[in-house]
Amino acid sequence: MDKITGQIIRNSLFYASEEMGIALRNAAYSPNIKERMDHSAAIFDSEGRLIAQAEHIPVHLGSLPWGLKKTIEYMEKESLNWEEGCMIVLNNPYIAGTHLNDITVIRPVYYLSKIIAFVANKAHHSDIGGKVPGSISFDAKSIYEEGLIVNPIYLIKKDEFQTSVLSILSINSRNPYERLGDIRAQVAANYVGERRILEIINKYGVEAFNEANEIAFEYGEKIFLNKLKEMKKGIFEAEDFIEAPDYKNIKLKVKINITDDKILVDYEGTDRQVPMPLNAVFGVTISGVYFVFRSLFGEDLPLNFGAFKNIEISAPTGIVLNPEFPYPVAGGNVETSQRNADLLYLAMSNVLPDLVPSAAGGSMNNVMIGGVHKGKTWAFYETIGVGLGGRKGMDGTDGIQANMTNTMNTPIEDIERNYPILIRKYEFRQNSSGAGKYRGGCGIIRSYLALDDITFTVLADRGKNKPWGLFGGLEGKNTEVVINKKGRRRKVRIKSTFILNKGDWIEIRTAGGGGYGNPLERDINNIFRDYENGIISFSYIKEYYKQFKKWKK
């Protein structure tokens, strides 16, 4: 095959995965998918090897290939057959790879009665049952408290919906109408992916399709090995902590061994699995490793099987990063995944100090709200951005989704139009950034006023352990949650569930990123610019930037 044809096929498949995501977003019903784009799509070869994945949600990066492999194994074990015209649906995290809210839909693509590829997508559904609206609680002791569990089952046979399965998925949600719409959107996305694959095969032939994929895998491996040659070799370790609801530390530990042709990542020494929803299934752990190394290696490393085949990951069974069924995992996907990324970056700061940033705000700051309004049950889910860590030559970005999430914010207009909530405040959090030669980004303040009685759950982190700085940079400010009930305002735990009555409000103050480098070396013009923009106050300047001491307010 000539190189140009191979490149055309490879790029066409990548954009096919992007188009799958666009179709999913455009057809979805829920704000979480339609507005926040909390979904991912991918294309695999007939062996389940990743061909292309759209640049959607990093925490899905490793879980989709892992989940497809586990699904194939499950179907073989249970004597379920892939059939032409079928789609499989599942959400069991110990098979699919994230948490129950993420529903995965898989379609085998047939050509001349043989499977030539798989298309798959994963989307976060804002409610899948469980003990709290939004399904992500802070205190579930087993996965059975987190919502409906679905092992691989036919969603579609002979291109017809299995209505009984749709009924099960919808009736177990507080938003049955949204569930039906979002599931159908996922099905539409897979049809788009299948259509694009068959168009490529019809144009170039099945042999060219397979050959182009093998060439793409070889290219991905070649880029990886070339990047590895330039990297310092040796063993590099780090530890960090995720916080239990009572702020007790749960330790994550990693050892990264960089050799001439492999990267070995070992999580020996990480704390044992816990009876709370902070365990992260192994697919989530894999995603963190892939995300960090993809970000450090650069955009020229493609998202395919070959790019990651020389990374070996080991995590003892029964630790918080590789739990056993039925330990709860809802928060592990969204919070422990973030700490895993911080952990890996911290270890790699000894290898690539000019590339690795200081810690970001370190939490997705999950908000789950719901109740009964005008006689109907409802549920809403969103996450709130943080400050990114500073890095060499660059301040951290202010108020953005960091690391393992890549979603948008939910427009205030959409929230207030559809739910009994008023957004009181949405702004940058002044003085939250870690000081440094290159400061961390600042966090966000988002405040919710209840217009009816509601149940409000927040699952955040970095309430005690502040985002760390690097090379003299200072920590970012920690996460805070403030509640006002009946006119009484108080700080509360950042992993909690509350009943808010009409007129009560709650405010999430997200963490800022850590600083990079000595604050005394920060350019005075940049300090003044931050002050003018309201990022920092005069008192903050006096405390952290002594070189500005002669300046008067």
What does this structure look like?
With 553 residues, the chain is of the alpha+beta class. The protein folds into two domains: 3-212, no CATH class; 357-553, no CATH class. It has helices at 3-27, 31-34, 63-77, 93-96, 163-171, 176-204, 206-229, 282-297, 305-308, 330-348, 412-418, 524-532, 538-544; strands at 39-45, 50-53, 87-90, 102-111, 114-124, 153-157, 160-161, 234-243, 249-258, 263-266, 311-314, 366-373, 376-382, 421-428, 444-450, 454-459, 480-485, 488-492, 495-500, 505-509. The strands form four sheets. A seven-stranded antiparallel sheet has the order 2-1-5-4-3-6-7. A hairpin with a 5-residue loop joins strand 8 and strand 9. Helix 3 (63-77) runs antiparallel to helix 8 (282-297), helix 5 (163-171) packs across helix 6 (176-204) and helix 6 packs across helix 7. The radius of gyration is 23 Å and the shape is globular. The mean pLDDT is 96.
- Helical stretch count? 13
- Tell me the structural class: alpha+beta
Largest sheet: 7 strands, antiparallel
Number of domains: 2
Shape: globular
If you compute it from the alpha carbons, what radius of gyration comes out, rounded to the nearest whole angstrom? Answer: 23 Å
Number of strands: 20
Task: Quote the average pLDDT.
Answer: 96
- Low-pLDDT sequence parts: none
| Strand proportion | 15-25%
Strands of the widest sheet, in order across it, are 2-1-5-4-3-6-7
Q: How far do the termini sit from each other?
A: 68 Å
